[in-house]
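**Discrete fold encoding**
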Amino acid sequence: MCAGPGYGEPFGPDNYRKGAPPIAEYREQRSTPFQQPGSVLMVYGLDPLRTNADKLFNLMCLYGNVARIKFLKSKEGTAMVQLGDGVAVERCVQNLNNVIVGLTGAAPLSLKDEDNRNSTGEHKLQLAFSKQPFLSEVTNPYPLPDKSPSYKEYINNKNNRFMNPTMASKNRIQPPSKILHFFNTPPQVTEAELIQVFKDYDVVPPKAVKLFPMKSERSSSGLLEFDTTSEAVAAVMACNHAAIDSPGTKFPFIMKLCFSSSRTMSIRNGDSNTSTNGPGERRMEQDQQ
């Protein structure tokens, strides 16, 4: 990986803050989101065939507002992400650097078999602060292998979770784990329907689902357990914000995922034992619905 204008050094365990502005500067940046110097992140090691801007957004939005995402044509598997401020960049680096990602879906059918031979397994993400202060608009982005644009804006995307101080305070920052918390799903959703969502997106489905007792008729929530953390990360990238239809409603429910603070889940599919999520996750549900 070559350093140069706009690129940062891959981060090791002891230098993830390299190049970061002082914390005092971070506090000042929060008042003007999406245009703060020091808020651009370099992401290396992405699956070049399966990753697109929306999948990267689905992961990065767990740690801060996402403004823009741009893939680099000259560096395969590399993208630049502009976040709301340097604090969000630091959160991403601290939690996602060196994380292993499983397959985030099937490779595009238009690709030849030989194009797929080097992208059939897991990928390690490497994150770094960029030297660019912010990303400029790209008026004519090139197409990614799945035909989606290589540049997208998310400034007005309603799935950003840190849009105001109240929303931001409800998020509980967690590193990747093999257990996901899901919420904003149809009130009567079943375990089988949830598992089918992941199958429809061509990712490994959870091996266990735990539906929490509903506290209202508005939506449902619970936990999903995967065999490995890499499978859970891939599931977030592919299925965070997946639409789930519900009988009797005009619009589908937009399922929201995040990494759970729970580290074990003893139940298996079909088990009727009850459990509750942590207070932080419950507060986040109420805010994001």
Q: What stands out?
A: Helices lie at 23-29, 53-60, 86-96, 113-116, 165-170, 191-200, 229-239, 279-288. Confidence is low (pLDDT under 50) at residues 1-32, 267-283. Residues 23-155 form a domain with the Alpha-Beta Plaits fold (CATH 3.30.70.330).
